[in-house]
Amino acid sequence: MINRQRVLQEFMELVAITSPSGGEREIADVLKGKLQAAGLQVEEDASGEKVGGNAGNLIARLTGTVTGAPVLMLSAHMDSVPPCAGIRPQLNDGMITSAGDTILGADCKSGIVPILEALRRLREENLPHGEIVVVFTISEEAGLDGAIQIDPEKIRADFGYALDGEEVGSVTNMAPGQNSIDIVVRGKSSHAGVAPEEGINAIVLAGKALAAIPQGRIDFETTCNVGLIKGGTATNIVPDRVEIGAEARSRDMEKLARLTREITDAFSRIAAAGGGSAEISVRKSYEPFVLDENSPVVATAVRAAQAAGIAPRIEATGGGSDGNFFNRYGVPTAILGTGMAKVHTTAEFIREDDLYRTAEWTLAIIREAAKMTRPT
Q1: How many Cα atoms sit within 13 Å of 324 on the Cβ side?
Q2: Are strands 313-316 and 289-290 parallel, antiparallel or unpaired?
Q3: What are phi and psi of 157, to 5 degrees?
Q4: Cα separation, 27 vs 17, whole angstroms
Q5: Number of continuous H segments (helices) and E segments (strands) in the chain
Q6: Distance (Å, rounded) from C-alpha 165 to C-alpha 148?
Q7: Which of 367, 300, 363, 376 is nearest to 66 (CA)?
Q8: To which H or E segment does residue 243 belong?
Q9: Are 171 and 111 in contact (CB under 8 A)?
Q10: Which among 14, 171, 257, 281 counts the fewest CB atoms within 10 Å?
Q11: How does pLDDT run across 332-341, given as a tens digit for each residue?
């Protein structure tokens, strides 16, 4: 059903466009034209202005041809991680890579291209479909900033999919929430050689606290990581300040809250016991989501995969995505795998055939949704 040559050419075209987080202007303009050519009404929101970028989220709608079918949302993000300037895609023996000095950009162009191809095939083949909302977001890689800023009223749909996973056929129905934890441990400075007893070493206090808190995988759905630490000015000065950046994640909100409290309480208690103090800031980065395997969003993806000759696999993830916010906004959203691999590295690749399979799967989802009746 899909035009393989067009899919491949378009993927090669899009990954060659430089599109860092906050710098999506060029690709947004290109995609706006492609969506309009496919018959969609396109709007660009003001999210870019709010996050300091040069382009906003693209929100496009295609009027349905089937009465009573559910409204379907399809999404992918436009930005890429560095190094993403001057990407030169290479196709060798069915494998697409960069030239080795940049990322490839399959994350997330391998989600954008199948959506575009599926939309074209609807028009070219006059295939029945319900109303479709397409959302191409900005600054996903910078912290889901585009999804955070989007107006939920503009993406109202019965269910949707973010094409931002890895193995084709994977349907992610569970993802954790995340709390970002910023800590400043304060001690007292003194000369390390002349009067060390007059000082309170903030690094030592922080080290004791770090040794007391959970680290790594806590259980099957909960993790903790300390990723940043900065402190001290010289070896002959007892440091009076240490900055620490940590995170806690869980698919269970009670576990997330309990783990966050355990971390913050340990730093407060241990710093105070050593004569210092701890200033702690906790920010909720995003909330978890859990979709039942029998829910329409998951079941439709599974049926469509089978119809496209793809083996579906329902799975959980430990990472966050735009889907965390779409679910929070009331649009049940699963994450679909597109075949991208070794993302965020210069070894990133995707198999040519996986681009075609994802496009076929996306089209099959639209066709499956057209057979359904919208819940009342």
Answers
A1: 24
A2: unpaired
A3: -155, 165
A4: 6
A5: 10, 17
A6: 19
A7: 367
A8: strand 241-250
A9: no
A10: 281
A11: 999 999 999 9
HSE-CB of 54 using CA atoms within 13 angstroms:
12
140 is a catalytic site residue: yes
d(CA 192, CA 329): 54
Rounded-to-10 torsion of CA 322, 225, 174, 287 = -50
Q: How far apart are CA 123 and CA 126, in angstroms?
A: 5
Q: Tell me the per-residue pLDDT of 20-78, one tens digit each, with 9 for 90 and over.
A: 999 999 999 999 999 999 999 999 999 999 999 999 999 999 999 999 999 999 999 99
Catalytic residue among 140, 166, 240, 322: 140
Q: Which of 10, 24, 45, 79 is catalytic?
A: 79
Question: Cα–Cα distance between 60 and 57 in angstroms, integer?
Answer: 10
Residue 190 is given by DSSP the state -
Give the pTM: 0.92
Residue 1: pLDDT band (50, 70, 90) is: confident
Residue with tokens 């889901």: 144
Alpha carbon 268 to its chain centroid, in Å, reads: 32
* Stretch 152-163: mean pLDDT: 98
Over its C-alpha atoms, the chain yields an Rg (Å, rounded) of: 24
Q: Where are the alpha helices (DSSP H) in 243-319?
A: 253-273, 296-307
d(CA 194, CA 180): 39
* Three-class SS state of 2: coil
CA–chain centroid gap for 29, Å, is 22
Token look-up 């503009």 returns 154
